[in-house]
Amino acid sequence: MTGTSAHLASPRPAAATSRGSLLGAELGRLRHRRLVSALVLLGLVALLAAMAAVFATHSTDVEAAHAVARQQAAQATAEQKVFEQRCLDDPSIPQVDKDNGACGSGTLTEDVFFSDPRFRADRDLPVVAIGVGIGGALLASLLAATATGADWSSRSIITLFTWEPRRLRLLGTRLLAIAVYVAAFGVAAQALALGLGALTVQLRGTWQASPLGDPQTGPSRDGMLSPDRFWPELITLQARTVVVMVLVALMSAALATVFRSTGGVLGVAFGWFAVVEIAVHAFFSGRGVLRYMLTENLVAALMPGGSTLYVGQRVTADGVVPNMVHLSNWAGLAYLGVVTTALCALAAVLLRRRDL
Amino acid sequence: MSTPAIEVRGLRKTYRSLRRPTQRALDGLDMVVEAGGVQGLLGPNGSGKTTTIRVLLGLARADGGEARVLGHPVPAQLRQVVGHVGALVENPLFLSGLTGRTSLNLLARSVGVPRSRVEDVLATVRLQERADDRVKTYSLGMRQRLGIAAALLKDPQLLILDEPSNGLDPAGMKEVRDLVRELGTGGRTVVISSHLLSEVQQVCDRVTIMSRGRALLSGPVDEVLRAHGRRGFVVGVTDHETAAGVLRQAGLDVQPMPDGRLEVGTTGQPVDDPATLTRLLGEHGVWLHHLAPAGGDLESAFLEITSGGGLGEADDRGADS
C-alpha cells in the first residue's frame, strides 16, 4: 500500500479553489434553479405587460384630448350655472353668503380637464425606471432569499462545505454571485424598459420638455429630469435602481444565512415593513426616526433629487414651522449600504461560529 | 510506516442549546484509522459517530482534543487536505430541483475537476441512465449513490461515509456495501459509520466500537471477533430432532439452519471444545456427518464489549441524529 504522504504528493485536485471556478459554480447554481428562473421570467413578463399597458393608454392625438376636455368643461360649466341659479334663488341662503360667492360663479376652462395623452419622456421615463427598480428589488429579494434559503432547508450547504471548508470564502463568493446575477438582471430589465419606453415616446409621446405650470406636472419639476441633463440623469437613475436591487438582494441573502431559511427572511421582512415601519410612521414620525426607515431611504435613493421628510415641527417667532429633512440620492444609498454591510457581517460571524 | 488517515486524541464535544438539554457527544475520543482499507465506526445512535465525522470535516467545532486528517491538524489545515477527502454526511444533500449530473457538474466546477470525471463517477455508482433526471425523482438508494458519486469526484484518498445504508431496502443496502467494499481497495481509505453490526462485519477490515462518545475498542474485525465474538459450531446430523433435544438437555443453545444443519453454542453457554459435541451426540446414538466452527458474529462481540449495552440502547447524552 502506498503511504499517505505519497498520495498527497500526487497530482490531485487542490482543496484551494480559484475564486473564478467557485464563483462560476455559484452562478451556475443560480442559473439552474427553477424557482430563480421562474422569478426572472415572471419579472420580464410583468415588465412587458406593464409596458404594453403604458403603450395602449397613451396616444399622440392631443387635439382629441383637447376636444374631450372642451366638452367636459362645457358640460361642467352648464351644470355649474344650473347650480348657481338654484343657489341664488334659494331664500334659505343668506344674501351675504351669496354676495361672497357661496354659489360659485364663472366658467370652467378646458385646461382644468385637459390631460395630455402623450407619453412624456421627462415625466414618464423616470416613473418607468423607478417602477422597474421597485419591482426588481422585490424580485431580487425573493430570488436571493430562496437561492440561499434552499441550501439550508435542503442541507445541501453541508455538501458544499465538505468541498470548500472556508465558510467565509463560500459566503463571500455566494454573495458576489448573487450580486452579479441580480446586477445583470437589473441592467437587462432597465435596458429593456428603456428601449420599450423610448419606443413608446417615439410612437405615442413626445421628447419635448414638459412646460412649467403644466397642470399634469404641477408648477414644479419635482420627480422630473432636467431638460438639459436628461440622458445623464436618466441613466444615473437607472444605475441607482440596479444598485438598490443588488443591496436588497444582499440583505435577503444575509438574512437567509442568519436564519438558515427562506421563511425567516420573509418573516423579518413582514415584521419590519408591516409592523415596525407602520408603527414608526404612526407614532414617531415627528421625532426624526423616519430618517432611519428602509422605505424612506429606498425612496430617497430612487427619486430624482432625493426626498424630503417631515419630521415634526417647531415654534418660531413666525409661528409653527415644519421640520423637514432632505435625503439625497447618495444619502439614501449610503444608508442602505450600511444596513447591507451590517447584515452581511452578522451573517459571516454567525456562519463562522455556529456548528452545521 | 505510513501516516494514519485519521488520528483523534482526547476529542471532546458538547452541544449546548437553550431549547434542549446539554448533550455530551464526544467524551475524550481516541482513535486511529490506518491508511488503506475499510474502517468501520460502530456504535448505537447517539454514540458520537456523526459528531466525530463532523469535527473531522470542519462542520462542527470540538471543545477540546485534537484531530488530524491525512497528517494535517483539522480544522486548522483542513483546506490543505480537503481536496483528498470525499465525504457523505448523513443523507445525501442536494438541491432537489437540479439533475444529478448538474449537481455533480457544479461541484466539479467549484474545484476544477474535469467534467469527464463526472461521467466516471456516475458510471462507478451506476447512475448514468438517470443522471439527467431531477434529484427529487430519485429513490433514497439513488440519492445515496449520487452522494457517494459526489464524494468520489475528487478521487479522494480518504472517503468518509456516514451511515451510507440508512433508509435503504435490502437490495439497496447490498449495492452500497458492494460499492464500499470495491472502493476500499487500491490504497484508498474508506471510513464508514454505521449502527448496523452486519454491515460493519461484512464490509470492514477494521472496526472502532464507540459508545457514549468514546472508543471502547479498535482493531481488525477478525481480531475483535476472535477476542470477543462468541463462536459456536455447525453440526450436520441425520436425526435433527434427537440431536437438538440432546444438546438442549446439556444446556446448549441450538438454532436450526435453513439447510437442516444445527448451529450450536453461538448464543448462551459457549462450547469450549468440539469433542464435547461428538461425545454427547455419540452417547445418544446420533452420529455426525458434519462439524465446523460457526462464523463469529460482531453482535455478540459488541454485547460483550459494551457489557450488554446493545445497539438498541441509544445513549441519551449523545447527539447523533
Report the sheet with the most strands of chain A, covering strand number, pairing sense and barrel closure: 2 strands, parallel
Low-confidence runs of chain B (pLDDT<50, min 5 residues)?
310-321
The residue ranges of chain A in which pLDDT falls below 50 over 5 or more consecutive positions are: 1-20
Name of the CATH superfamily of the largest domain in chain B? P-loop containing nucleotide triphosphate hydrolases
Greatest contact pair? A-B, 42 and 51 residues
Fraction in beta strands of chain A: 5-15%
Element pattern of chain B in H and E: EEEHEEHEHHHEHEHEEHEHEEHEH
Question: Do you know the CATH topology of the largest domain in chain B?
Answer: Rossmann fold
Q: Note the main sheet of chain B.
A: 6 strands, mixed
Count up the helices of chain A: 13
Order of helices and strands of chain A: HHHHHHEHHHEHHHEEH
Arithmetic mean pLDDT of chain B: 84
The value of Rg of chain A in angstroms is: 28 Å
Radius of gyration of CA atoms of chain B, rounded to a whole number: 23 Å
The class by helix and strand makeup of chain A works out as: mainly alpha
- Quaternary structure type: heterodimer
Structural category of chain B is alpha/beta
Q: What strand line-up does the widest sheet of chain A have?
A: 1-2
Give the number of DSSP strands of chain B.
Answer: 14
